[in-house]
Amino acid sequence: MKDAVYAANDGIVTTFAVVSSVVGAGLDPIVILILGFANMLADGFSMATGNYLGTSSESEHFQYERRREEKIFAESDAKAKQEINDILEEGGYNNKDIETIADTISKNKKFFLDFIVFKRLGHMPRSKNYAVKSGVVTFFSFLFAGTIPLLPFIFLSDLTAGEAFVWTIIFTTIALFVIGASRTIFTDKNWVVGGLEMLLAGGFAAVIAYFIGAFLQTII
Fold first, then answer.
1. Which chain regions cross the lipid bilayer (predicted)?
2. Pseudo-torsion of CA 40, 138, 209, 23, nearest 10°?
């Protein structure tokens, strides 16, 4: 769900920024569609592969650290157990509890290793399938949301670029607010605040892109 929300966020903002800049430059609607879809596909693929590689690297790093801890465990139980003691001490446990918990944890080698690495890195390992799924979800969420600013240019082809852009602003405003509000699923932030934050950020990016396009039109 998190991958979908953040990919949709990026998809709609980047595509809207492209549309804004092209409209600002006074180019034809067909050019807007071509550049919009080209940017959307390229950025969507880039974000998806980046997400996949990042998740895979995170998992590989976890497994590397786990093998290192496994080697320490094999060479010296006492040294490995001391790592557990240090972690528990940082957590505020007293000496008696530390000894009891450490003895219990060290009886299960798999949990022992996962616990140490988790406390060090702050995350559990992710499977290869999870990385693939994350990349696929990111790509299609990016495409779905990124299509929204282009809808008026697809279905309202009888309008001028400026008229279609007005509908793009309306569609994108609604979508930005909904996507921003949905981000609060993962936080304790108020959904209205989350929606307005996303709306302001996306709107700011679009305004900048629009005026850059308008400026370039005057000098090219």
1. 12-38, 130-152, 164-186, 198-219
2. 30
> What length is written for the chain?
220
* Digit-coded pLDDT (tens) for 154-186: 888 788 888 888 999 899 999 989 888 887 877
3 state SS of 91: coil
Q: What is the pTM of this model?
A: 0.74
Instruction: Determine contact, residues 203/17, Cβ cutoff 8 Å.
Output: no
Residues 197 and 203: their CA atoms lie apart, in Å, by 10
Distance, CA of 90 to CA of 73 (rounded, Å): 21
Rounded distance between C-alpha atoms, residue 175 and residue 203, angstroms: 12
The token pair that represents 102 in the structure block: 């450490």
CA 47 – CA 68 distance, rounded (Å):
31
As given in the structure block, the two tokens for residue 150 are 């282009």
Alpha-carbon torsion 37, 209, 136, 53, what sign? Answer: positive
Average pLDDT, the chain: 82
- State how far the Cα of 218 lies from the Cα of 220, in Å rounded to an integer: 6
What is the Cα–Cα distance from 65 to 67, expressed in whole angstroms?
5
